Amino acid sequence: xxxxxxxxxxxxxxxxxxxxxxxxxxxxxxxxxxxxxxxxxxxxxxxxxxxxxxxxxxxxxxxxxxxxxxxxxxxxxxxxxxxxxxxxxxxxxxxxxxxxxxxxxxxxxxxxxxxxxxxxxxxxxxxxxxxxxxxxxxxxxxxxxxxxxxxxxxxxxxxxxxxxxxxxxxxxxxxxxxxxxxxxxxxxxxxxxxxxxxxxxxxxxxxxxxxxxxxxxxxxxxxxxxxxxxxxxxxxxxxxxxxxxxxxxxxxxxxxxxxxxxxxxxxxxxxxxxxxxxxxxxxxxxxxxxxxxxxxxxxxxxxxxxxxxxxxxxxxxxxxxxxxxxxxxxxxxxxxxxxxxxxxxxxxxxxxxxxxxxxxxxxxxxxxxxxxxxxxxxxxxxxxxxxxxxxxxxxxxxxxxxxxxxxxxxxxxxxxxxxxxxxxxxxxxxxxxxxxxxxxxxxxxxxxxxxxxxxxxxxxxxxxxxxxxxxxxxxxxxxxxxxxxxxxxxxxxxxxxxxxxxxxxxxxxxxxxxxxxxxxxxxxxxxxxxxxxxxxxxxxxxxxxxxxxxxxxxxxxxxxxxxxxxxxxxxxxxxxxxxxxxxxxxxxxxxxxxxxxxxxxxxxxxxxxxxxxxxxxxxxxxxxxxxxxxxxxxxxxxxxxxxxxxxxxxxxxxxxxxxxxxxxxxxxxxxxxxxxxxxxxxxxxxxxxxxxxxxxxxxxxxxxxxxxxxxxxxxxxxxxxxxxxxxxxxxxxxxxxxxxxxxxxxxxxxxxxxxxxxxxxxxxxxxxxxxxxxxxxxxxxxxxxxxxxxxxxxxxxxxxxxxxxxxxxxxxxxxxxxxxxxxxxxxxxxxxxxxxxxxxxxxxxxxxxxxxxxxxxxxxxxxxxxxxxxxxxxxxxxxxxxxxxxxxxxxxxxxxxxxxxxxxxxxxxxxxxxxxxxxxxxxxxxxxxxxxxxxxxxxxxxxxxxxxxxxxxxxxxxxxxxxxxxxxxxxxxxxxxxxx
Length: 980
Prior knowledge:
Shape: globular
Strand content: 5-15%
Helix content: 55-70%
Largest sheet: 6 strands, mixed
Strand order of the largest sheet: 9-7-10-14-15-16
Distance between the termini: 48 Å
Number of helices: 39
Oligomer: single chain
């Protein structure tokens, strides 16, 4: 089964299983409250729902909920049944965010009224798992399936239809994830149940045989798959008849298997028979008939029978457009298949037109809302994993001079923006709109939404961790109830915002920016946008390059797996210890992979160089593993190695004149000896002066940051948002918090910036919140803030350090509205993110401020920890926030993670236009030199990205600190947001 077809089949299968579960669960429920009206509503609802008329069934489902609440009570099991019915209506319309709280509320009712281990509760768990599976939230879906399965096995037994249904659902989930080894035994268990309970020749047995055969076919186990398909075909022919629709389905699947094996002569009669059954039973213009016709066309394509395939494709395409609509996945699949046929025939213009049409048809169903959930996962996967990779291969195969398809490029760029979205991008857009707003009520309502979002995400993370660690059912149930409450609060806050400011709510669905708009309105002379995209099951990579003069769609040879390995290697070479001191010699032993840095350049930037002539500022939108990469680290050239030098010397020696003259030989030997003595002396000197010798290789290569100023943004829409936003009107140039009063062990670095020991800004080894004050003191951050004040010509009165730099001081500024007076806000301190949080018992990231000296004075709002949820409540109006701390550029340091920590994202919510963040723990002494230099340059008028580029070059070449040349010290910082 083709990739797109498989995803659609899985969705249909899940919907069928959901409907079956609801019928089993709810068929008698409407009678439990003795409400005739509920029975009538259920009958009306199910009649419309089972006919696929979801929108028409919705009013009956809504009224059912209202009647159940009034007659049975809000916490009655019957109310849970009506909530589940309404949820499935929303789910089948792709309204996942509306369905989820209904399922969760139904689950809470069933757990409280019936118990957490009852079959009815398991039914709700399964329906919620199906929702999560359809959203691609496979980890959450699996946990719910497993819990439902255990309940059913315990209460109903292993030989019960409900148990077998859950087994199949879980098997399908594993198959979807490619976990074939785990899916197979579940399919086999379900098969054995149907065989034992219904018989080996029952249609339900045939259905499971087909599922297991599909699994085997995807594994290349063709012989086993064929025997199962043939057995399923025999059952369906004998029990349902040779002309039944289910028989036609098995015929098609068997034909696909034969085609995959190149057994075209055996496949064709099965396809033809399937087409005839569809035409006779469903009519010549039915979508299932079109699917069968399209499959036959695909077979002819594989055989090179293009003249026979084309009219079949066109017939299937017309049926699907007329009956399903142009934006249906099956319509898009047929367009893609016909485009592939034209491509093989070198009909490139026609192929490009069809690819373009497929993208245009689907793009309006690929929106990402502010909540971060995609509306239609099937369409999204179809585009990302099948259509875009097909275009990638199409462009890679045709001659360069024929790759001129502006309409295809434009559609691809629009679709890319809809797919390449993130919560960070939404926050930047939201921040821009809030900063433009003059209405304080609007800002207040947006703050309420932001705080509700942060709280919901925090509780969701706690629930996920609890499940992973095997917490008690009581703990999980309590967290699930908290999650429902948080979800409802979020919905109410969003509703209040939309009710009073409906125009503002449109920020959640911004229209894509065309590359023409970029060229004409957003890009300056000398700037280029590079938007990377990872597509397809094999991790293909491509990039859009937009300049004022051109737009290009460039595929790469490097795969996602190769890129991830190279990025991992680079990050290993910058892995400084978090929150502790280390020596220069330790740094020298931290080897940075220059080869990987150069390979990433040659694979990801060099192919774009022909389009970057005259460019000096890159606006980069990364994707996948590239989210975790500081592009400044890419090496455009490598230093000469000793081996290379030796070969060059030998070549010179072989061509040396007078080599046969004894005196010449003596002279040469003497020169060699002298050279050897010089080399040995240099080697000894280098060993004595680790700084000078070990770090020289990092000064020799040319880095990408030497050639281009670089800004990073999570989405294309974020670039538009920050470019159209006016600068801050704040009066004061700088507000700084740093150098907190800490009582931990001081390193020599903490006492003197010139000492040998180095120090990172991170957690270290503290155990809980009460020991925050035992973190390592960092007086360099006080020096850093003083340097910033000098650069911006302001006074120390705006610097909050030492005993003055507490949360209480910050909150007081916020309460008085004074935070909006500062254009630049700097936090120079330890940051506690991701993996460091459990050491302090925290459930969200935080910055360290001065904790209270007395434990009795510790409050949540004044405990020395400025949490992400507290940052959201700040009211800033800053051009940028400087987070010169630990690992604030990645949420957890993993490859492909959201491109900002939760802490950094909160500063966008608080009102910052741009951020300076770090990809790994920043070293205190290096940061104390680089960041003030950066600010001095911006104060002198240099654009931010260019100022950062120059500051990094200066730090790398610091004659007094040769070890600053190590990339771990000069390259952690990136600008997210406006860098121009």
